[in-house]
Amino acid sequence: MRAADLAAPFPTVRRDTPAIEAARLLAGQDLPGLIVLDGNGYPATVLAGTQVLRMAIPQYCQDDPTLARVIDEQAADLFLRELGDRTVAQALPEHGRGLAVVAADATVLEIAALMARTGNPLVAVIDKHKQLLGAVTLDALLDRLLLE
Amino acid sequence: MRAADLAAPFPTVRRDTPAIEAARLLAGQDLPGLIVLDGNGYPATVLAGTQVLRMAIPQYCQDDPTLARVIDEQAADLFLRELGDRTVAQALPEHGRGLAVVAADATVLEIAALMARTGNPLVAVIDKHKQLLGAVTLDALLDRLLLE
């Protein structure tokens, strides 16, 4: 089994997509993450869902989540407003743990090793022209290996 | 909105649950992760789905996923057999990025900050006796904040 056999269509966003729109896409379709395309339609990066969420969170709370306790409940309920006019580009991690992208002929072990290393349950599959073929999610991978 | 308002029932495993059974639970119910209870029924840890997967992956592939390429396709298809007789306890990360557990009165911002920091789309909610009340998934959190 190769990545091309597992790759399924997956929604994409662009670097200039508003972050709030990306969050709505994630929520509305229960996606494990998002594939971000660059201007040429190539997968520029693959964001795990928690990385999209991170955009909305004040830096001091990211460093120490217990500090979020100083924000009262009413204000906390509205924290996603912090996304404001920010774009997906501003959510991109500065220091990635490796780009979650594989070639069409990658084996299931290569895909799994990449998910384990990046902590990202979503991997983009590209063809030889670096165009997006589709995505493999952790769910899809495990389903194929364990349930069929 | 507090953690107790968001907490929903969630399957749990124990430290001595076979890892392969944990993987089947993840796959069968499309879970974002697993809550591991200790002998007293307290959440001992919360594993992201990719951490469960990591158990099955040879160490050299974890360090460098491209090395997985040396394994041929037929052998790669069977990599989950590496789980063998291992238990969930053997999958527990040695150096966690913070335990994904919150108290019942945690705000949505506290939950979100914890997800962002740990990279884990699953948070366990405990009561004052440290018993599991339920879980909040990233999907559930975003649904409540964005779609209702």
TrEMBL record, chains A, B:
Gene3D superfamilies: CBS-domain (3.10.580.10). InterPro entries: CBS_dom (IPR000644), CBS_dom_sf (IPR046342). Keywords: Kinase, Transferase. SUPFAM superfamilies: CBS-domain pair (SSF54631). One of its GO terms (molecular function) is kinase activity. Residues 9-57, 98-146 form the CBS domain. It comes from the Bacteria. SMART domains: CBS. This is Histidine kinase. The lineage of its organism: Bacteria, Bacillati, Actinomycetota, Actinomycetes, Micromonosporales.
